[in-house]
Amino acid sequence: MSMALFSSPPLHFPALSSSKHHTTHKLYPSLTFNKPHLSFLVSPKAIDNGSGGTTSGGVAVEKEDKAEAGGVKVEESNEASLGSNGSSPPVVVASAGAPMTEGVKMFQDSRWVGGTWDLKQFQKDGVTHWDSVIDAEVRRRKWLEDNPESSSNEEPVLFDTSIIPWWAWMKRFHLPEAELLNGRAAMVGFFMAYFVDSLTGVGLVDQMGNFFCKTLLFVAVAGVLLIRKNEDIETLKKLVEESTFYDKQWQASWQDENSSSSKDS
Amino acid sequence: MAATQTYLADLHPLRCLPTPLKIQNPQNQCHYFKQKSTNPVICKLKAAVIGGGPAGSSAAEALAAGGIETYLFERSPATAKPCGGAIPLCMLDEFSIPLHLIDRRVTQMRIVSPSNLVVDFGKTLKPHEFIAMLRREVLDSFLRQRAESSGATLLKALVTNLVVPTSSREPYLIHYIMDNCRRQLAVDVVIGADGANSRVAKSIKAGNYSTAIAFQERIKLPEDKMGYYENLAEMYVGNDVSPDFYAWVFPKCDHVAVGTGTVCSKADIKSLQRGIRARVRSKIEGGKVIKVEAHPIPEHPRPIRVRGRIALVGDAAGYVTKCSGEGIYFAAKSGRICGEAIVKASEGGEKIINEDDLKREYLRKWDDKYFTTFKFLDVLQKVFYGNNAAREALVELCGDEYVQRMTFDSYLYKKLASGNRWEDAKMVMNTISSLVRCNIMGREVEASAQKILSRV
Fold this sequence. Notes:
The complex is a heterodimer of chains A (265) and B (456). With 265 residues, chain A is mainly alpha-helical. In chain A, 63% of the residues lie in helices and 3% in strands. In chain A, helix 2 packs antiparallel against helix 3, helix 3 runs parallel beside helix 5 and helix 7 packs antiparallel against helix 9 (211-226). Chain A starts with a helix and ends in a 6-residue tail after the last helix. Chain B has twelve helices and 19 strands. Chain B: Belongs to the geranylgeranyl reductase family. ChlP subfamily.
């Protein structure tokens, strides 16, 4: 199938497969770290490494769905090494048994029909249950991150998140967080109002009329909105720095004017 | 030196006047001299452009057309540079590029998200609009030839060193190797257009920039598969193909270039390339790899772009946009602006220029004209290329016709497209909502990954 593609740069494979041994071993320790984004970067590479014809057992990993993909890549490389015409079905060792159709495992789900979710299958009491649509899509995207699929013209993907109505998102994600934040703001607000009242004797209504108190209120609301976890403070600082970084790189040519005038002719 | 002084005094009794003189024989090879910084020079300005790509050729053409004695150095005129080879419509007009040089007119762009959602860009293009794909060697040699016919002297030579004198009144000395002999040339002005690994930049200690690496394989496809790419180019985004850039399939004269790029994961470029090949698998089956090439792409301008009477243009200066990685048009345009700046400041080669002239006429003009474009693309790259969730949002947004029209107009004409306020507002709302939705999805995906990892 893609034999010509793999065999034409003959220099590539021998060089690559020797280095792959090292990289596969290097990748495993990092998988045990509990950093999800790292695992996503790592997992596609682990799979790609398998295609060089190295240990198929080595690729079969902790994650259960990766094992299937590991089997896929092994049989592709077997095809390449056999030098077959590519049309023969794979002869392999699939470790976690799902039957290979054309040698590539695509995302399969009974509700994923024709490149999009069949909303009729998500019905609950006659109404589409959007939460399960969201869950299904999350599962599909996670599967694809681990096993990137080749895009095909025959089976295009037609689903995008705008199909799910805005109120479904609100109900599921915005409202709980809003409840949390409002709760925090209310607690902080009550305590601060009591504290200021006990210190200065100014009641709540009079506090609202004071400019300083209004500023404090604004700061409190902004703080609750922007700083939800401890890490957010660092994130915000980095954001400010990052957004001006590119400007600084461009302005660097002009800084020279002030520092050195000796080069002027 | 005294002899020349008296000789010239006899010839030009009006030498001491502050106004510049017109010289009858511009081929004067003598060392120029001047008493005060505003005095006219006796011989014409000599300029060297190092590097004969689009930037160098445009600079040499502008200089020569302005009457300045120009020398264009190019070490290997026939090499095919690893490059996408796409140029916008405005370049065809502004640089009068003949249409027969164009290999392909791309009228459709396909962008594919990590979950393989495909969006077709190009419905809004008018019949005369397209992205021109050319072979770099064809374009470069055309521009070089035009520079030569404007009066520049083309030297097929490798520049080995550029000596910057200690005194600002002495010329720059270029050491070069031509036909296996070492030679030298003394010039007044140097334009460094020698690309990402610029030697001129090293000589003036211009500072470094961070680079992305672009890696591509040219693959010759069977007839039927090639038909699919007749005038279609594809862009793929996803962590499997590039963690901070995109991967592409661009059609060239009779083959396609499949490649990817990255800034932060240069060591993994080979596995990223395998990733893009896997994503395009069915469309390039049966193809044969005919060439593999890679090149660094600057990510931002160098800290110093002008020093003394030396200016950097094109890739040497770092004028490559983020997000799309476009550099050919900006290289040619910066070369032209720099050449014209020198012509204007030296009044056709009569006066010597200084660093302030270059900064005022070239850097200031360039920054004022293009900084917003570059900044905007930088913001786009930061927002949309960071993670898979943002990339999904990007592809979703690109489905909108207004977005497509604005994108193409800005790309093809390099001008902020005139939009409708209401549509702009809608676009902003859509952007925010797409980003929110896709980021929510992204967070859920990560959360479920956490659950699986913790289970294991």
